């Protein structure tokens, strides 16, 4: 993707924006090529005091937010918040025996920290789908032995809006967890696809409040 950035390199330098690139190159002066550094790096871990955060509220990473508190932007995520996300799937009733189907974008907190991080937290298997497909969803679930599905509300609506197909109740999905599922879609989803427990949650990337609808 470097060619997309190359035309604006002069303006980035003026604003003191560093450009790091992973790949073969060659690259112009002022661009930091990471591959050579990775190849030269030692396999030995550095001592803990080098990589251990000094303060758990320090920035761990920046993540894209679609703008709950304004325009879309990069939001700061602390080490503490990242670690708290490890317990997400445990809170909704999943375990290491589950196979989690994840088709959400990984630049959002839901897909990366709750989805990937949540699977790491409980030691579950994660099935990553590059792009959500309503027509392939149930076939994927059967093929991969999926037991848990993480959604945003629209994904469930896409599934409900699909024409009926044979075998769409023949699956091992037991739990759907996510945000933004409207009541009418929720009812249609469960009525059509079988006894799937739905746990609706709400959280803000930039906030400190999280809600779980445990009672259904």
Automatic annotation (TrEMBL):
InterPro entries: AMP-binding_CS, AMP-dep_synth/lig_dom, ANL_N_sf. Residues 47-210 form the AMP-dependent synthetase/ligase domain. It catalyses: tetracosanoate + ATP + CoA = tetracosanoyl-CoA + AMP + diphosphate; a very long-chain fatty acid + ATP + CoA = a very long-chain fatty acyl-CoA + AMP + diphosphate. Pfam families: AMP-binding. This is Long-chain-fatty-acid--CoA ligase. The keyword Protease does not apply. GO terms for molecular function: long-chain fatty acid-CoA ligase activity. It comes from Caloenas nicobarica (Nicobar pigeon). GO terms for cellular component: endoplasmic reticulum membrane; plasma membrane. Keywords: Ligase, Lipid metabolism. Coiled coil: none annotated. Belongs to the ATP-dependent AMP-binding enzyme family. Gene3D superfamilies: N-terminal domain of ligase-like. It comes from the Eukaryota.
